[in-house]
Please model this.
Amino acid sequence: AALSDEPIETELRKFLNSRIGELDHAEKLALADKLATIPTISQRAAADITGVSRDTIRRRRTKTSGGAHG
Model:
């Protein structure tokens, strides 16, 4: 990233991890849903970032899209 020698993905993950505790459960679910729609982010990564279980993300993604991702 511009301010350090770490890749932008690492910096973004650090930023999200520092802010995730401020979100309530519904906000974490919404963020997990959004992250899981990004082709380069797996459901596992979305779960790791948000603390929402992969099963929950998978069920919600299947319910809204008719399919699974990651």
Summary: The mean pLDDT is 85. The CA atoms of residues 17 and 49 lie 6 Å apart. The helical segments are 8-19, 25-36, 43-50, 54-65.
